[in-house]
């Protein structure tokens, strides 16, 4: 299968954690910028085909355990972000596109991911 | 005594000659050579003895309160004189659960009454002393093709979780264990048991584990399904920590739970079909949503006496609920179905094979599709009336011979490496 390169927008138009959408025939792609890296995903939730990338980006929920394995606290951390599908709130790791719940398992639920290139001040995706 | 010696001595009539006997199961076992070919482990046989049998193992303070020397006699009378069953069952409850009755939870007593009315115990294992009972089990297991039998605590701990007296819970667990160590351990080949621990007193639970786990015929820890607090609660953590350290597998066994949600039922059929699987589902849901498998990665659990049909239901519910609400439960890093396929074993009994055995095919198909055939363990629940002989599994034509071998013995050996 041959990959086509599509231009999304000039680099300077990207804001941190604000997706830009690229509409193609039968496919919508969201491109995110975070900490000087770009991530592109299909705006199609593999769960029930909801518009996953139109949901909010949310800091990940984490926790701390004591020596007896009891939870000391639950908290949100901006070290990791999740794309949260607006239909059923399934959260996908911004960096990998894999649903957080399934990241450690054999069966992974994931958004379709595309490569992003930056050339001559333009952000491009390979589809 | 070895099994063969016991059989040779024939201290009791063969099963087939006992009223309400097991001729069919014995013939089936013989004609299919179950004993030699399958190395069957039965994970759930109940001692089913009244408190009076454990009297000598209970502290003085309970004498006359939770046991009665006449109880066995009165129960025999009940079995023989069915007309008086209502009265006898009530007095049974009064003797065993006076506190529960005082607290107005008469439903508990009603449960016992219904349990009695439904012919709860098979009389051949009911109207006998503890020693006789164990001898009967030793003989029975060979007759029905079973190699290793787990004799689990019955009336001595059932519903104890519902009694407000935590010291009684502690003493009952210790009484069963002491009875076992005294009367059974080391005396019979291929008879095993589990360790009931008082969940509401974790320090005592750990003391019991430290004291008794070294006995080679104790294969797992035994927790009742009737505890109000779900198994993911941090009150269980000290027990889990001890099990993690010693690599002790944990069994959750369904029990009579007549508080709250099930209180308005007063028949055994409803309790058996609804309360049992709901209890186990409650605890398993707690384990998953509270991240127990991440906190204690070496723990394994078996859930017994609620059949298999609730498992596909719960797997389906949990997978989609947690996927949508992972923020509530950030500990989980894989789908609940994956934790269940890796860490949880499920007892077959009572196999939901009415009105015909064809009705259970879908459940086994579900387990097979999910790679969980290695998580099904045979259990008979003998001598209770909803028991399943080995042929309930061996006779399923849609299972391969290897699958039957796994369910009837291999899986239980993997669950409890100590008793291999």
Which labels suit this protein?
heterodimer; A: 127 residues; mainly beta; 6-stranded antiparallel β-sheet; 3-stranded antiparallel β-sheet; 9 strands; 0% helix; globular; B: 420 residues; alpha/beta; 8-stranded parallel β-sheet; 18 helices; 45% helix; disordered N terminus
Summarize the structure.
Chain A has strands at residues 5-10, 20-24, 27-34, 37-42, 57-65, 71-84, 91-93, 113-119, 122-126.
Description:
The complex is a heterodimer of chains A (127) and B (420). Chain A has 127 residues and is mainly β. Chain A has no helices and nine strands. In chain A, the strands form two sheets. In chain A, strands 1-9-8-4-3-2 form a six-stranded antiparallel sheet, with no helix packed on it. Chain A has a three-stranded antiparallel sheet with strand order 5-6-7, with no helix packed on it. With 420 residues, chain B is an alpha/beta fold. Chain B is built from 18 helices and eight strands. Chain B has an eight-stranded parallel sheet. In chain B, helix 10 links the parallel strand 3 and strand 4. In chain B, helix 4 packs antiparallel against helix 5 and helix 9 packs parallel to helix 10. The longest helix of chain B has 22 residues. Chain B starts with a helix and ends in a 5-residue tail after the last helix. The chains are: A mainly beta (127), B alpha/beta (420). At the A-B interface, strand 5 of A face helix 11 and helix 14 of B.
